[in-house]
């Protein structure tokens, strides 16, 4: 370790914006510079008898700041030049990719983001299944009151809007179907059109989209606000499992209520279609009921309602995952709420398309 040399002296005076230094400008004397030395526009260095690397680094910094250096001797100037050359230079920014490279980079980033999102959803699905298994093995840990409350919020309170929207869809299908089939004298087939469309696809798909828009945002908002207030950390501190308390009741409530809502949507859609068929085509309700029972296979009902538990898991997992991703501010909460709704609806539509392909391949 270097020791302090004998009597290192440095005398600094500042006048008229000029800093005059006399003596040794080294690592040992830099701390003796007065505060007003930083504001000097010129540095008179003719009296400097010794200059080391630390002193040269100080002078280089002052020169970088715009100060004029005067009076350096030849060796001192060469030392200052060497220090300036050794100054680390920031890496130059690489030029942004252009053309097909830019497209490939954007595609790669999108693929990585999508795969990361799917991996996180798979993680939450596994956490839900683990919590479900734990609830079965230890029923005392299962929160039945929370499940009933969420069934009321996600199911019972959604009945009016689901029934009304499905009723209107049935009316629209009957009206549009009648306008087209009347041209061929096949008005009676509007019953088949309404029954297959609603029972097989539109009833459960419309219900899932409504629930995704209504419930996924609610799940994200409730869990996200708890995370902002650090209530989830408090649960862990108290020994409570957030998966058992938050994730399991919410997803399980959706699995229970969505098939019921789908059944209500089917009935409301058929009622709307029957009413419009009666008004527009003169098909009586009894005729509508007879042809519906005689010509419509129960397979359409099974195909439609069998999608409901899968849609429920998708909506619940996406909503809870977005809630857990909320940060510490309200802006993050709003962004994740919107993201949850968009992702849940998109995932439900993709799943419905995959179901259609699957059932078509197996002959249902």
Automatic annotation (TrEMBL):
<feature type="transmembrane region" description="Helical">
    <location>
        <begin position="251"/>
        <end position="279"/>
    </location>
</feature>
<feature type="transmembrane region" description="Helical">
    <location>
        <begin position="339"/>
        <end position="359"/>
    </location>
</feature>
<feature type="transmembrane region" description="Helical">
    <location>
        <begin position="158"/>
        <end position="176"/>
    </location>
</feature>
<keyword id="KW-1003">Cell membrane</keyword>
<dbReference type="InterPro" id="IPR030802">
    <property type="entry name" value="Permease_MalE"/>
</dbReference>
<keyword id="KW-1133">Transmembrane helix</keyword>
<keyword id="KW-0472">Membrane</keyword>
<keyword id="KW-0812">Transmembrane</keyword>
<comment type="function">
    <text>Could be part of an ABC transporter complex.</text>
</comment>
<comment type="similarity">
    <text>Belongs to the MlaE permease family.</text>
</comment>
<keyword id="KW-0997">Cell inner membrane</keyword>
<feature type="transmembrane region" description="Helical">
    <location>
        <begin position="300"/>
        <end position="319"/>
    </location>
</feature>
<dbReference type="InterPro" id="IPR003453">
    <property type="entry name" value="ABC_MlaE_roteobac"/>
</dbReference>
<dbReference type="Pfam" id="PF02405">
    <property type="entry name" value="MlaE"/>
</dbReference>
<feature type="transmembrane region" description="Helical">
    <location>
        <begin position="188"/>
        <end position="212"/>
    </location>
</feature>
<protein>
    <submittedName>
        <fullName>MlaE family lipid ABC transporter permease subunit</fullName>
    </submittedName>
</protein>
């Amino acid at each position: 370790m270097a020791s302090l040399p004998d009597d290192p002296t440095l005398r600094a005076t500042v006048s008229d914006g000029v800093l005059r230094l006399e003596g040794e400008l080294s690592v040992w004397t830099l701390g003796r510079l007065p505060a007003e030395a930083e504001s000097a526009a010129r540095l008179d260095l003719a009296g400097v008898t010794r200059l080391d690397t630390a002193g040269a680094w100080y002078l280089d910094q002052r020169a970088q700041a715009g100060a004029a250096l005067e009076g350096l001797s030849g060796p001192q100037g060469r030392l200052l030049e060497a220090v300036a050359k050794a100054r680390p230079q920031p890496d130059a920014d690489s030029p942004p990719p252009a053309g097909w490279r830019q497209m490939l980079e954007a595609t790669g980033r999108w693929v990585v983001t999508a795969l990361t999102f799917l991996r996180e959803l798979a993680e939450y699905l596994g956490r839900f299944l683990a919590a479900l298994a734990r609830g079965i093995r230890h029923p005392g840990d299962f929160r039945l009151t929370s499940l009933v409350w969420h069934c009321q919020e996600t199911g019972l309170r959604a009945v009016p809007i689901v029934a009304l929207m499905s009723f209107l869809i049935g009316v629209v299908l009957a009206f549009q179907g009648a306008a087209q089939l009347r041209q061929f004298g096949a008005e009676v087939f509007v019953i088949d059109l309404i029954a297959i469309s609603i029972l097989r696809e539109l009833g459960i798909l419309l219900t899932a989209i409504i629930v995704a828009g209504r419930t996924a945002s609610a799940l994200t908002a409730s869990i996200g606000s708890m995370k902002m207030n650090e209530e989830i950390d408090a649960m862990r501190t108290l020994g409570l499992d957030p998966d058992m308390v938050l994730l399991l009741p919410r997803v399980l409530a959706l699995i229970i209520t969505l098939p019921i809502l789908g059944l209500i949507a089917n009935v409301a859609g058929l009622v709307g279609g029957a009413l419009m068929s009666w008004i527009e085509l003169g098909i009586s309700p009894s005729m509508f009921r007879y042809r519906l029972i005689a010509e419509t296979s129960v397979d359409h009902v099974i195909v439609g309602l069998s999608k409901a538990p899968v849609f429920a898991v998708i909506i619940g997992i996406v909503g809870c995952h977005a809630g857990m991703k909320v940060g510490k501010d309200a802006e993050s909460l709003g962004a994740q709420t919107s993201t949850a709704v968009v992702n849940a609806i998109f995932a439900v539509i993709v799943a419905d398309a995959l179901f259609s392909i699957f059932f078509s391949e197996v002959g249902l």
